[in-house]
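Lecture notes, unit on protein representations.

Consider one protein chain, 465 amino acids long.
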Amino acid sequence: MRRPGRVALLPAALLSALLAGCAAKVAPPPASTLQVPAGWRAPPLADVASRPVDQAWWQGFNDPALTALVTRALANNGDLRVARLRLEDYRARVRATAAAQAPTLSFDTSAGRARTLLYNGQPHVGNAYQAEFQAAYEIDVWGRLANATEAAAATLRAEQANADAAALSVAANVASGYLTLRGLDAQLELAQATLKLREQSRDLARRQFEVGYSSRLEWLQAQAEYDAAAEQVPQLQRQVFEQENALAVLAGGVPGPIERGAPLAELAPPPVPAGLPSDLLRRRPDIARAEQTIAASLAQLAATRDQLLPSFRLTATGGIQSTELSDLLHAPTRLWRLGGALVAPLFDGGRVQAQTDSAAAQRDQAIATYENTVRQAFAETENGLNAIARLREQAVQNDARRATAAETLRIARNRYRNGYAPYLEELDAQRNLYAADVARLQLRTRLLTASVDLYRAMGGGWQAR
């Protein structure tokens, strides 16, 4: 005796068994070991701004030339242009992927002539003219197409964050390069001023030798110091020239001179931005890029896994056909066809499972990359905060060193001119003061560029989308 209830339940049971057999196995993600510290271990700084990081943080240096140079670089830099073109590419990819969720419509026409046999065995030559519209639509029951679209959209967001990271890098490199250039300008001015002083000392030593007041050794020592100072000038001029060319190219132009603004002595770094380690998770574009890469890998994993599930596709065809071309236009025979298909893979040699395993591995790689990026962001910010604190301490010691060297030179010069000491003492004092002055300019430049590095490390004001 037949049991209608058992028969009615049979298709559902077969479908459940089919879905269970089609489900791909997905390995779970690895356990995260990332820990966000509660605060910074670097020494606290006094001049911490209460406001967050400004997006145009380079304006905090109050140098119009620097601001104009960064603005030009952000508009014309070659790497940024490539990054923006890549965004257009990925926007098109999102549209192409999303189009799979929409119905498709196509038009087809054909004309043919054939010789066939009729039912009575007689040959027949006939024509066939046909015009047809075809429509198809896949019902996204399991969300496979939606997941593929989300994967493409997340990849686009990752590329946008990558473009932001490139913009931050360009702005920071331009600012650091400009500040380095102003430091070289200051060192060149110091070298040229020192050369004039060495020239005066050399001429004085020569005159004293000529009148017999000092020895030829002192004159030669003064000449050697003059030559050493003269050697520094072309070396610094070469460095200034090369730094200008590098900045011009970085700003998207051809090698050439760079307009100057405030001198090094008037440049002051902006206040250190406030923030906790957790703030970097939304400030740094490279962290946002890594986060969106995880989202893309998760969506792609879901889309790849769902390839083993059945797909549902609706099709519709409508058209006209006739044996004469004139009938096709005036009295054709109308044709139509509706259909639905359920397609499920039974055996593919493990291809989809292998693709699923690959997508799961890419997900795990994206998670590991995210954790490494966050850790690196913490380290860079810690190093930036510590560098500013230690450079400030070093600058205080340099001020004391320079004051001592200046007083030593004053005493040595008076002793030499009054005949109580040889010229060698004054030469040593001059060298010590010059070294202290050079170190002072270099420290100031390093402190300014360290502020740029800190703003770069803290995200530069870019906010995660």
